[in-house]
Amino acid sequence: MVEMNGSQALWESLMKEGAKNVFGLPGGSVIPLCDEMLKQDIRFILARHEQGAAHMADGYARASGEVGVCLATSGPGATNLITGIASANIDSSPVVALCGQVARELIGTDAFQEVDIIGVSASVTKYNIQTRSAAEIPYAVKTAFQIANTGRKGAVLIDLPKDVTTEIMDVKFPENIVFRGYHPVYQPDRREIEWAATLLARADKPVIIAGGGIISSGASQELVSLSEYLMAPTAITLMGKGAFPADHPLSLGLCGMHGTCAANTMVSEADVLLIIGARLTDRTTGSVKTFAPNAKIIHIDIDRSEIDKNIDTVTRVIGDAKISLQKILHHLSILRSSTATNDVWRKKCQELREVNGVSKTNGDYLKAPEVVKTLRKALARDSIVTTEVGQCQMWAALHYDAYLPRTFLTSGGLGTMGWGFPAAIGAKAAKPNVTVVDIAGDGSFGMTENNLATSVKEDLPVIVMILNNNMLGMVAQWQRLFFGHRYSAVELKKTPDFVKLAQAYGAEGVRVESYQELEAAIRRAIKSEIATVIDVPIDPEENVLPIVPPGMGLKDALMEA
Amino acid sequence: MSKDNIIAFLVEDKPGVLFNISNMFRRRGFNINSISVGNAEDTGISRMTITIDAEGRSLNQVVEQLDKMVDVIEVKRLDKLRTVIRELMLVKLRTIDPMAREEALGYINSNHGLILDIEPESIIAEVTGEPEKLDNFLEQVKSIGIVEMSRTGITALEKGQLKLKRSELNG
């Protein structure tokens, strides 16, 4: 027992959990917390909007594998965090959000800047806690970190009434919290492993779909081993990008609505489909009726509730992806002495990898896929790319080759425009020596561009490459393809001038008109000690292809438009 | 009721838990027909019993989504053949007419009901049993005139050795 105030208890608890950075923005109810922070060895990164702070914490978590922490004041500060918390939670990213709250006696009175953030955040967090005394704070922090970063990871919110942060009490720091109702299963059931291995050993046309679970459990090595052992072509979901090296001969790339021809065809023709750490949303499966119609589906996931939620499986493995894959590999080696040799199947994989979607484009504009590939060539293998959401995200997913886990970060589940730039800043805080690039669109970047101030003033230089089509591009693409080419509310009319905008924040801004200029600009930006915005004008009419029209199956993708 | 499935679960007895559970039902689009809550045998733990008109994937999802919640300790779908099921109902009947009163008392007695209150114009009856029995009673007294009624939703315990809480979690 040590006597201290609630704020001190909070910071000490955070440091015991290994938190080094907190991303946030203060306000009335967290002034005592910020004051106490001056005495602590923790870096506070000042965002210019709380949504950005939450995305920074999320980007930090995804790049490092550690819990990201963000802080906001009560009321609007806390509600501004919500989009960021929801984005992290649905993508199973471990984030702990600290929210100020009005003093205990004012709770429930509609006091100034009071919002019921426990109620508001309930459906977008894995768990949330309101501390009712200073002594509860260390337990709340321990609980939050434990829940956020175990099992299927997610976001946890702690609501801190102002007078709790100033209250002086005897506090104790717990070593561990035992939950009666929370027991993540890491060790898979032996029978499940054996049955999965048996089905895989019998497969003629095996395919693997790897999701974000591979990355959060650190199972990339095991995935490659299994894929090679079975000679199983391996597709990824958007969250799985980086889980399997894009330059591996068995790599199929992205599966789903904007999946590659190779991935969507092979998945549709597989006789055994192994899905690892993926939620199988509509964006991955297309119409569920025609998803992998011939396949016996095996689903490995740490979250039991994902099994049979959207797609019926033949068998399941509940557990950690890394441990499960190790055990399946071990069991396969018992079942079969040599590895598979289905040459026809492998050859088909090779051939389909050459097939790309083709968009008509006008004039001399740079083409988005080439722009993305130019970026890839200029970057090191371990550079980190984040994306905004929409066309830029899908071009990045299709054409940016990610080789390593935690090097391609994107808002998959929520599809949050404005996510990529602050997430890049968070990733840079986690990996200061690695180049971090946000592949942005003009629409998305506009939503969180004020974080340029954070990037410049907090010395977290990242690169923003804007695929600028003066459009809310993905909506425009749907309007062209599915709404009779009628544009409604999508034209951005060349505002703002992103070069001048960058300069206004003290960042570098450059516009490029050719691939050579682009490459030179990227190389300069990598060496620069300040954030760089590279504005790349592209054709407003360019489509992301392939695209599976809404409601259709994976085999019905449009390849040209 | 006969089509409904019964799920019983133990939860941490603390503020916000009921909200989180009903919020999850709402968010996932699960339609609950009845819910009852009360203390369980151990302090700090509440027991909830719900009935839900769902089967297959959707029923499975209710169980899994409940199980996933941090404050839900144990979840089980109850097998009706091996479960004792009860619901309690209070009914206020309009009995100004002496004939109606006579008739009402007859139905209450034949259903082993209790009379909790007698006024010149009305009586309050308590009837307990499986939901079908309560439905039948209501059917019988409908013509007499129901002023108001309140049902608790079912509560249930498994027979014999079966129990909700796994033994290793005792204490």
Short description:
The complex is a heterodimer of chains A (561) and B (171). By secondary structure, chain A is an alpha/beta fold.
Q: What is the strand and helix layout of this fold?
A:
The complex is a heterodimer of chains A (561) and B (171).
Chain A: E1 2-5, H1 6-16, E2 21-24, H2 31-37, E3 43-46, H3 50-64, E4 68-72, H4 76-90, E5 95-101, H5 117-121, E6 127-130, H6 137-148, E7 155-161, H7 162-166, E8 168-171, H8 190-202, E9 206-210, H9 212-217, H10 220-230, E10 234-236, E11 251-254, H11 261-269, E12 272-276, H12 282-285, E13 296-301, E14 315-318, H13 321-335, H14 343-352, H15 368-378, E15 384-387, H16 391-399, E16 408-409, H17 420-430, E17 436-441, H18 442-448, H19 452-457, E18 463-468, H20 473-482, H21 498-504, E19 508-511, H22 515-527, E20 532-537
Parallel strand pairs in A: 2-3, 2-4, 4-5, 5-7, 6-7, 9-10, 9-12, 10-11, 12-13, 13-14, 15-16, 15-17, 17-18, 18-20, 19-20
Antiparallel strand pairs in A: 1-8
Chain B: E1 5-12, H1 17-28, E2 32-39, E3 45-52, H2 56-68, E4 72-78, E5 83-94, H3 98-110, E6 114-118, E7 122-129, H4 131-141, E8 146-151, E9 155-158
Antiparallel strand pairs in B: 1-3, 1-4, 2-3, 5-7, 5-8, 5-9, 6-7
